[in-house]
Amino acid sequence: MLFNSFAFLLVFLPCALVLHWMAERFAPAWRLPLLAVLSFAFYAWWDWRFLPLLMASIVVNWAIARAFGHWTRSALIYSAIAVNLLVLGIFKYADFALGLAGDITGATFTPLALALPLGISFFTFHHIMYLTDLKAGRAPQFGLVRYTLYIAFFPQVLAGPLVRWTEIMHQFDERPYLRSDAVERFARGLLLLTVGLAKKVFIGDPLSLYVNPAYEAAANGAVSVSAAWQATLAFPFQVYFDFSGYTDMALGIALMFGVVLPQNFDSPYRATSLQDFWRRWHMTLSRFLRDYLYIGMGGNRHGLTLQLFALFMTMTLGGLWHGAGLTYVAWGMLHGAGLCVGVLWQRARLPMPPLVGWALTFVFLALTFVMFRATSFEAAWTVYEALLGFGPEGERIRWRTIALAAAVALVGPTAWTFVHRLPPARWVAVVAAIVFVIILFKIGDDANYEFIYFQF
Predict the structure, then answer these.
(1) pTM for this one?
(2) Which residue, 130, 343, 432, 455, is most buried by CB atoms nearer than 10 A?
(3) 323-347: average pLDDT
C-alpha cells in the first residue's frame, strides 16, 4: 500500500499505532516482535509472493552473521555478499544482461520476465552494510528480531533511507513513549508525514502532467520544443518532490513509532557544484557509494589517476543501481565524468563564483536527467534535438507549477528543519489538520501516483 493511499492513512497506520501503543504500555517485550509483524504485513500487502524472499534473505544473512561470530572466516561474509548480489542481479538485471548479450552476439535469448520485488535494492544494501561492518569488526551480533527490524522496518523498507545499523539498532532498545518529549516527537512525526504528503500530492504529482506526455511523445519519435523544455525543467523538481516527499513521510512515520531515521535530502538544488549536489541529494545512498565502493576502490589515497577511476566507476555503478538499462549507466557515467572534472578544477585551483557554479550545476543536472528519464537513447536524443529547436513549436510553456516548485526547492527550508522550527502551538495543529484533510480529498479526486523510486 502506498503512503499516499486511504488504505495506509486511514486503516493500516492508525491500527499499527494503536497496537504499538498497547504493546509499549502493557507488554513492552512484545513491542519489537509486533513491529516486525506489522512490517511483514505492510510488505506483503503489495504482493504476498515476495514476502518469503524478504524473510529468507533476513534469516539466511542473520544465520551467516551468527556463524561468522563463531568461526570468523571471511569466506562466510564474502559468500553472503555474493549471494545477495546474485539474487539482486537475477531479479533486477537478468533480462537486461540477456538483452545486452543478444545485442552483442546476435543470438536470441528468452527473457525471464521476473517481477521486481519492491525494495530489493534497498534491503540488499542494508545486508551488505551490516555484513561488511561485521567482517571489519565494527558491528556486533544482534538477535533475529532486531536484525529483522533493521532490514524490514516498514517506513523505510521500500525506498529507504539507507540506514546504518549504528543509527537505528540502539533505538529499538528504548521505550519511546516513556520519553519526556514523546508527545512532541509524535506530533512532529505527524507533521512530517503531512508535509511529505503535501510535497508529493501538491507539487510532485502535478509536475508529472508536464513530464510524462513529453517523454511518451519522445518515445514515439517526436516531441515539440515547448514540451521538451517544459519536461526538462519540470522533471528535476518532480523527482525531488516525489522522493524527498516519500522520505519525509518515512521519517515522520518512523518518528511516530519512536525511531529517528537519517535525513536524505538537504536542499540539493542550492548546490554550487556537482560534488556539493551529491552531498545533499539522496544522502544515504551517496554515503553508501562513498564508504563501500569509492573508498573500497582506493578513493583519494593512492594518487589522482586511481581517484578519478574510482570516482567514475562508483558513479557508473550508481547509475546501474538506479535501473537495468543503458540510459541509467550513461547517466551515471556522465555524473562520474562531471565529478572528475570538478576534482581536476579544484586541483588546478581555478576560481568558480558561487552563482556561476550554481547555474552550471543546475543546467548539468537538468540535461543529464533527460537521460535518466528517457526510455531509450533514441527518446533522449529526440528530447535533446527539441531543446535545440529541432521540432514543432508546440503550445505555450506552462510554468506556474515549475516556478512554485523551484521557489520551494531553492528558498524554503527542508521539511525536517521546517517542522522542528514550528512552535508547539494550537494553531499549528489546526493548520496541519486542515492541510491533511485537503490532501485526503485530493487523493480521493485524482489518480494516486506511485513513488518514482519504487522502481529502483
Answers:
(1) 0.93
(2) 130
(3) 95
Q: Considering the candidates 20, 127, 282, 322, report the single residue annotated as catalytic.
A: 322
116 Ramachandran zone, left/alpha/beta (phi>0; psi -120 to 50)? beta
Respond yes or no: is residue 322 known to be catalytic. yes
Share of the chain above pLDDT 90, in %: 80
Spell out the alpha helix ranges (H) of 27-119.
Answer: 31-46, 51-71, 74-105
Contact between 130 and 150 under an 8 Å Cβ cutoff? The reply is yes
DSSP per residue over 332-376, as a string? Answer: HHHHHHHHHHHHHHHHTT----HHHHHHHHHHHHHHHHHHHH-SS
∠ CA 242-451-382, nearest 5°, is 80
Q: What is the pLDDT of residues 75-127, one digit of tens each?
A: 999 999 999 999 999 999 998 998 888 888 888 888 888 888 888 999 999 99
Give me the residue label for grid cell 551515471.
332
Residue ranges of the domains in the chain? 6-178, 183-272+352-455
Selection from 167, 358, 202 nearest residue 280 by Cα: 358
Contact 131, 80 (CB under 8 A): yes
Which residue in the block uniquely carries the three cell numbers 498497547?
22
CA gyration radius, the chain: 23
